Amino acid sequence: MSDGTAVAGPDGALRCPWALSTPDYVTYHDEEWGRPVHGDDALFERLSLEAFQSGLSWITILRRREGFRTAFAGFEIAKVATFTDADKDRLLADAGIIRNRAKIEATMANARALAEWTPGDLDDLIWSHAPDRAARPAPKTLADVPAVTPESTALSKALKKRGLRFVGPTTAYALMQACGLVDDHLASCVARGAL
Q1: What is the spatial distance between Cα 141 and Cα 187, in angstroms, rounded to a whole number?
Q2: Can you tell me the distance from the alpha carbon of 117 to that of 106, in angstroms, rounded to the nearest whole number?
Q3: Has 58 been annotated as catalytic?
Q4: Catalytic residue among 18, 58, 117, 127
């Protein structure tokens, strides 16, 4: 059992302990998590998936990501914004995704709201909440990694003010971690600073 410090993976390299439970996590940890993501559609996808993850394990979402991408038209904001009640019914019957009515409705509503924004606004708004990396010490253990920060609380409020749903401070912080606004790889992790 890990004490929250980095653990040697199958290749001997130290990694954040959460990354070693499945090969899917190793790949996600090493190649995606904590690397900068830009573009409104790409950020809409990550925001939507983080919302679907709420209350579930991330591996549940990660393993269904392709199903989500197919079901939600590649998370193209302009396409999802046109989804109808028939699309909602289709999504509620789709075993390839998480069939949670409130989360499906929120994703559709968020796309409609975002379709009214100026292109680039979502990217600008999210990245405007990135803290100064130099001011944040690298976490040594998982206990050093917060679930919520002042920046994620501010991001949550800003997104809600602009009409988005399922974007609480914890979801906002998970988005910040996943999209590289912060680098929460542990100090001794092989992926730390690999941006």
Answers
A1: 8
A2: 17
A3: yes
A4: 58
